[in-house]
Amino acid sequence: MARSNPGLLLGLLLLRLNWCLAVDGGGAEEGGGVFPVVVSTWPFREAVRAAWDVVKTGGAGGSAVDAVVAGCSACEELRCDGTVGPGGSPDEKGETTLDALIMNGKTMEIGAVAAMRYVKDAIMAAKLVMEHTGHTLLVGEKATSFAISMGLAGPTNLSSPESIEKWSNWRQNNCQPNFWKNVAPAGNCGPYHPINIPKDPVKSAVWENQGITCQEWLQNDNLLEPTSSHFNSVNRHNHDTISMAVIDKMGHVAVGTSTNGATFKIPGRVGDGPIPGSSAYGDDEVGACGATGDGDIMMRFLPW
User: Where, by residue number, does substrate bind (predicted)?
Assistant: First the structure.
């Protein structure tokens, strides 16, 4: 019997209940299906229209890959629900970073970027990785340098007045909720240290220099456990990814994702978005699938 896992169930639920679809006749037919097809998680209609315009009319090449790039780029530009592209989902330091993936189901090539700073065109950067390198994933500031070297605009501030205000309000709420667990903060918003205080005399001296004693930690009522309940209910305001699948007129498949990650994430965190088989996967011989949800759970199981 298959084991139930919350990441997979969440992914399937979101893909079933929160999607936007475009389909029309006039293309290849296979197994009763009619091509082309564009499908996206969440009701990001403008993104679906942008992809549809490419794959239906043949614009910008008309391929499934081109359509995915067009659709995800539209969502990045529109900052869909503040969860895709620049200007949303600040991390603990108030910075927005981007993740993206694209996969060509015909060639099985994949390109992805993760924790990319200062470049707003995440899905285009992922496509450049796929087309112009032998790698699959580039990360952080090196991904930024690569994207700019390949002609994408940058460096650009990915924060916005809205994201900074959101981060400021969170700080005023003692940095709650957050993604830390089994730690005690030196202040309301860290730095954080393990609850089980190590006996390292050097570290103990550093902490004492900060005016914090081991006894104070042990008596601290603010020992943090996971506080992610605000992510548990499923609605359009607590997700953080667009996942898009396209079948073009030739029957070729492509998938892509783009996200600015989990709000108030620990800097450096990468979720399922740029991980093949976690956020999305596509194969001409099988089909395509994708989801959005709790990426830290989903990437443990590679549900696709």
Answer: 269-272, 292-295
Domain definitions of the chain by residue range: 6-162+241-298, 175-229
Q: Which residues of the chain have pLDDT under 70?
A: 1-34, 58-60, 197-240
CA distance 236 to 240: 9
Structure tokens at 110: 């994949």
- The whole-model pTM stands at 0.79
Which positions make up the binding site for substrate? 269-272, 292-295
Whether the Cβ atoms of residue 110 and residue 256 lie closer than 8 Å to each other: no
> pLDDT tens-digit profile of 291-302?
878 889 988 888
Point out the annotated binding site: 269-272, 292-295
3-state secondary structure of 183: strand
How far is C-alpha 63 from the chain's CA centre? 24
Tokens of 100: 């993206």
Among residues 241, 257, 259, 263, the one annotated as catalytic is 241
